[in-house]
Amino acid sequence: MDQNVTNPLLEAGPVLRALREVVAEAGRDHQYHGKGYAPNSTRMPRECNYVTAGKPDCIVARTLFRLGVPIAVLAQWEGISAWGMCEANHVAMNPTPLLTDNAASILDRAQGMQDRNHPWGSCLDAAEGRARELEVTA
Known about the structure:
The protein has helices at residues 12-26, 59-66, 71-76, 101-115, 120-134, and strands spanning 51-52, 55-56. By secondary structure, it is an all-alpha fold.
């Protein structure tokens, strides 16, 4: 996927389906352990990464990679939340957003739970709840 103005934004439905697949593959009990994570802590880790050792690392990166976003593009978004990847909130350093606002909102909910050290099943549950609020079906 070459992110440029001709590429469509990733929609909420496919993002939610890919998120379900990522969680099913990793397991509902899987927890992300970014650099500086304190096990069993609900505090934010010191550092989370989209890409580690050339592979998608966190729940957002794995979801986007499953949808065809290349590692190089994910790496460009390092340090930016899922919410920052959407059309409404994209940042100047990455002028081409990846996600629709609803897709970003759903991933942001999962990311927030992950970053507070919740297992990915809980992250998915939170994202599913946000999808219902937005009336997104997948």
